[in-house]
Amino acid sequence: MRSTRSTTRKRSLADLLTGLTAVLGLVVLGLFCPAVAQARSPGVLATGLHIADGRLVEGNGNDFVMRGVNHAHTWYPSRTQSLADVKALGANTVRVVLADGHRWSANSATDVANVVAQCKANRLICVLEVHDTTGYGEDSAAGTLDEAADYWIGLKSVLAGQENYIVINIGNEPWGNTDPAGWTAPTIAAVQKLRNAGFQHTIMVDAPNWGQDWQGVMRANAQSVYAADTTGNLIFSIHMYSVFDTAQEITDYLNAFVNAKLPIVIGEFGGPADQYGDPDEDTMMATAVQLKLGYLAWSWSGNTDPILDLALNFDPKQLSSWGQRIFNGVNGIAQTSKEATVYGGTSADTQAPTAPGTPAASAVTATSVTLGWTAATDNVGVAGYDVVRISGGTETDAAASTTNSVTVTGLTASTAYTFAVYARDAAGNRSARSATVNVTTGSAPTGICSVAYRIVGEWPGGFQGGITLRNTGTAAINGWKLVFAFADGQTVSNMWGGTATQSGGTVSVAPASYTSTVPAGGSVDVGFIGTEGATNTAPTAFTLNGSACTLS
C-alpha cells in the first residue's frame, strides 16, 4: 500500500534479515511451491466473474485480465470523475479504496452503490477494498479482517447481483511484518464468513508483510486458503514495491502461483525508487503480460508524495513520468488492456486501422530516438500505436503511444536499429505494419554523466519536469550536485528525489538519501513541480560536481 496519507515503505533492515531466515527455511522445507489447486465442480461456480482452471474469467468463460489503477475514493469521495478519466486512458479495471469505519469514516451503502454504478457507466470492472486493515498486527490503528467481513455483509443489499462487475477485496494488506504467519487463519475465516452469508462474488485476498509477502506466508499457505473456499472463486493479490527489485524475485513469485493453478493478480505496484530500493516495474509488467495476469498500479492521484501519483492533481492531462510509464509505456495499459466482454468488449468491429505512415527519426542520441509518423485511420477510431524493433524475422516491443510520435529509450550507443509501427483500435484490431526506418544511435558520451530532461506535463502557469541522471563512468558516484539554469524565469516549487536551491535562473540539486549513490552504468530520477511564464525552454547544459554532462 502507498497510503494517500503516507508513502512510507514498511520494510526495515531487521525485518528483512528476519524474513530472509524464514524464507530460507521455507525453501529448505519445500513449502514455497504451492500444491496444484484442485478443480471445483462447475456446479458450484458463481455467476459472473469467477475462477476457472486457475484463471479469472467472466460469466461467459472468457479470460479477463485486469489492467488498471488504484483510486483513493474514501479520502477523495468527490473525485468520481477519476473513473471516467482512467477509462479514457485505456484501463479496464479500477481498485477503489473504501473504509469500514474502524480507522476512517465508513463509506455508506449509498456511496458504494454509486461507486459501482459509476464503474458500470464507465465500463470498468470494480475491485472494492477495505483499507482499514492495513498493517494489522504491527499498526495498532488497523482493523481486523473479521471487522472488514462484517462491513461487506452490511453492504450485501447493494453488492448482490453485481457479480459480473465487481470483485470484493476483503481487506488491504491485512497483516504487517509482526508474526505474519498469523495471516492464514483470519483470512480463511473471513472468506468463509462471506460465503456463509451468501456472497457468490469472486473474493480477493491480500498478502501479509504489508502486502509484499517477503516472508513467503501467502505463497506457502495459498493452497490451504484456496481450498477453504467452497466456491473456488478466490484470487490472491500480491503488492510489489521495493521488495521486488530483481527480475528473479518477480518471475519466481508469479510463476509459483501460475504453475500451481492458483489465481493471482498484482493488486498494487510501484516503480519510482525510494530509500529501500528500486522496484523492477518493467519485469512486473512484462511478466504479467507473458503470464496473462492482471496488474493494478498505485495510484491515480492524491498521494502525499506525488512521486507515486500517476496523474497530478487528478488531471489526466498531467500524467507524471510514472503515469506515462503505466498508461503509454511498453506492456502498459494502452497497449495491453481489453475491455470486459460484459460491456461488449467483443464488439462487432472487426475492421483494422489502416497502416501508419513510414516513421521518421529525429533527436537521435546515444541511447534514444524520437519517431514520428503519419497517423492511421479507422472506421471507429485509432486507440494507440505499438512501435516494434525488428531484427531479422523477430519483432520486439519498443514503445507504445496514444499519439503519432514517441521517444524510444534504452538503446545502445553506436548501434543500428530498425523500427516499424502498428496501429490498433479499441476492439483490439491491429493494422498492417508500417514501412520501416533504419536508425544508428550516436557514440557513447566520453564524460561520466548524461542527463535526460523532460517536460512531463504543463498547465497554465506551471509544469512538471523530470530529470534522469545517468552515470556513464566505470565507478559509482557517491554524493553529487547537479547544476543547470532556466532561461525563461522558471522556478522550482517542489522536488522529489532531490533538494533544489535556486538563485535567479540557476538551480542546484542535492540528492535525497535514496538517490545519493549512482552506480556505474546506473541512473537516478528526480522530479519537480515548477512555475513558468509564456515560454518554457529546456535547460541546455548540466554539470555534475562541476563537470559537464552530455544530454540524452
Characterization of the model:
This protein is of the alpha/beta class and about 550 residues long. It folds into three domains: about 50-345, Glycosidases (TIM Barrel, Alpha-Beta Barrel); about 360-440, Sandwich (Immunoglobulin-like); about 450-550, Immunoglobulin-like. It has eleven helices and 29 strands. The protein has an eight-stranded parallel beta sheet. A five-stranded mixed beta sheet has the order 22-26-19-18-29, with no helix packed on it. It has a five-stranded antiparallel beta sheet with strand order 23-24-21-27-28, with no helix packed on it. Strand 27 (about 540-545) and strand 28 (about 545-550) form a beta hairpin. Helix 4 packs parallel to helix 6, helix 6 (about 185-195) runs parallel beside helix 7 (about 215-225) and helix 8 runs parallel beside helix 9. Mean pLDDT is about 90; it is low at about 1-30 and about 40-45.
The description of the largest β-sheet is: 8 strands, parallel
Helix content: 10-25%
The strand line-up of the biggest sheet is: 9-8-7-6-5-4-3-10
The average pLDDT score comes to: 88
Q: Can you say what the CATH homologous superfamily of the largest domain is?
A: Glycosidases
Radius of gyration: 24 Å
- What is the count of distinct domains? 3
Shape summary = globular
Examine the coordinates and then state which fold CATH places here, giving the name of the CATH topology of the largest domain.
TIM Barrel
The secondary structure category is alpha/beta
